[in-house]
Amino acid sequence: xxxxYLEFDFTVQPTDIGRDIxxxxxxxxxxxxxxxxxEGVTAYIQKIDWKSNLLEDVDILSNPKFTTKFTQKEIAQxxxxxxxxxxxxxxxxxxxxxxxxxxxxxxQVEFDIVIEPKMxxxxxxxxxxxxxxxxxxxNEWNGKKVLDMGCGTAVLAILAEMKGAKPIDxxxxxxxxxxNSLENAARNNCKHISVYEGDASLLKGKKYDTxxxxxxxxxxxxxxxxxxxxxxxxxxxYLSGFYTQDLNVLRKACNIHNLExxxxxxxxxxxxxxxxxx
Length: 278
Fold this sequence. Notes:
By secondary structure, the chain is of the alpha/beta class. It is built from seven helices and 14 strands.
């Protein structure tokens, strides 16, 4: 049975900040796949999931700080794997970690991660994922209980296990990410990753040595109390998904919950920061 999709072509100004906010909010509204454009983003949703009031929850469309427009059309079934395979090239991080698709040849590196992202976020190409990989490579993970919050493809959870972390919980609110994370964990022969579908409410009663959260500024701020509450003393928190200008806001929110800033990486105005719970 063919699946019919609706294609929405959004333009947003200012584009750099607006595009990421728009993608995040459209994702929560139910859109499944995104292609970034010079002026915004093209987003896709199954026709069966579309409701006339769905865009009312996408706050940026009515935010006076942004100028947005969109057009929509119905499209035939798309082979999503074929689409991303056209553009997905393997990446190499710090000469020791590769992230590649199953059809790419294996690289001779210490950490070789095979990811089939489909509609999920986290191939390593985005600045935030790239920097979080660097944080994992540069820190100690052996025997630590880890949470990968907003796991996307589970690429970060997979690398954490390769670095010796166990057990690992990987959580994402999106069903597609949940299913894709299960597939990718199995594809990389991971034995210690448990994948869950949901949000920060799943963290009640949990405790971790290290938390990875590569999501976006607003969700990080909203869930900071939950992260701090389930992080062990001297535990490490790695945050990304926000811009350089947002770092001070995140640092203040962390300070309220006794999370002390340690360092941060920057890449094309994106930030990945490390905190320790005192």
